[in-house]
């Protein structure tokens, strides 16, 4: 109990310190089973790193249907929801937490539209996908959903707070 309370306090202080820097917004990015099977994890990491975002958490796992039902619960009323949960649980995924200024908005722009046919060249989906049912990647759509998704996929102690030596070359 005391250990849990101390870890919660430590995490709160870490988050508050990060938020005071102004560049600490976090987003959740997941490479889905189709992206894993196609060997696209490295390309996703490369694009986020080249943009200037900082990787603060990463897991490679086979997500349970229960975890995915919770993750996608805002889509529960949609006809594709059961198939989406079943599909994403069908193989390994790479779950990541990225940090940086406007990480959610910029991350969504980098992913492209949900339907790859509507995505611009230069975006991950625009360059690497064809079919909406195999759009290789998920990204948080708001700061609130990013916080929820990161909390769902990562324990506080699984997220690393660190200072990049390149930070002064990325931010004014």
TrEMBL record:
| Record keyword Heme present | no
Q: Which InterPro entries match?
A: NDK-like_dom, NDK-like_dom_sf, Nucleoside_diP_kinase, Nucleoside_diP_kinase_AS
Keyword field:
ATP-binding, Kinase, Nucleotide-binding, Signal, Transferase
Q: Name what cofactor the protein needs.
A: Mg(2+)
Any one biological process term the GO annotation gives: UTP biosynthetic process
Q: Which GO terms describe its molecular function?
A: ATP binding; nucleoside diphosphate kinase activity
Q: Which Pfam families match?
A: NDK
Q: Where is the signal peptide?
A: 1-17
Protein residues bound to ATP: 32, 80, 108, 114, 125, 135
**What SMART domains does this protein map onto?**
NDK
Fetch the CDD domains from UniProt. NDPk_I
Q: Which domain of life does this protein belong to?
A: Eukaryota
Nucleoside diphosphate kinase-like domain: residues covered: 24-161
Query: What are the catalytic residues?
Result: 138 (pros-phosphohistidine intermediate)
| EC assignment | 2.7.4.6
Return the similarity comment.
Belongs to the NDK family.
Write down what this protein is called. Nucleoside diphosphate kinase
Organism, by scientific name, is: Saccoglossus kowalevskii
